[in-house]
Amino acid sequence: MNTQLSTRISRTRRGLAVLLAVVAGSGLAGCSSSPEASTPAPVKLTDITAADGTPIKQVTLAERAVQRLGITTGTISRANAAVAGTTAEHIVVPYAAVVYDNDGSAWTYTVPSPGTYVRARITVAAIDGDVAVLTDGPADGTVVVTQGAPELLGAEAEIAGEQ
To answer: Are 18 and 152 a contacting pair, CB within 8 Å?
Structure first.
């Protein structure tokens, strides 16, 4: 396994642990702005089905949960990047936006609306500094999560407790 992939998987696992701590310790399920709220707003997970029939979960977080998890965003764009020793214009995504699942497949979380996150498969051709060069994935201009993606992966997987 290459070093970058191993590091990203390790960060994903640490991110899942952070998410569990936030959920357990801070009442992520109670994300209302007022501590006096009688019914806390839970983290909502809504199942949706992608066009190809693959079940994908949409993760919807309250604004306070987004802030507590420190979620930040960037965009998929066109930029000069090196692939196989040749520099040319490619579709790129900030490498921080790339997460890997258990089988090593690469994904990024798109942001169709504020507080709503949907995982999208990407194919990474190369890593050039702080960007991943894509051969397949969401379109140029798509907003993606650059910080907090491992926590979203944990929320999507509905991980609870030490697993």
So the answer is: no
Give pTM, 2 decimals. Answer: 0.69
Q: Give strand pairing partners of 90.
A: 79
Token pair for residue 126? 């190369």
Instruction: Return the percent helix, strand and coil in the chain, to nearest 5.
Output: 25, 40, 35
Contacts of residue 14, Cβ cutoff 8 Å, sequence gap at least 6: 150
In a domain, 129, yes or no: yes
User: How many folded domains does the chain comprise?
Assistant: 1
Q: What is the CATH number of the domain that holds 34?
A: 2.40.420.20
**Strand ordering across the sheet containing 77-83:** 77-83, 86-94, 131-136, 123-128
Q: What is the pLDDT of residue 9?
A: 55
Beta bridge pairs of residue 118: 58, 110
Burial class (CB in 10 A: 0-12, 13-18, 19+), 147: middle
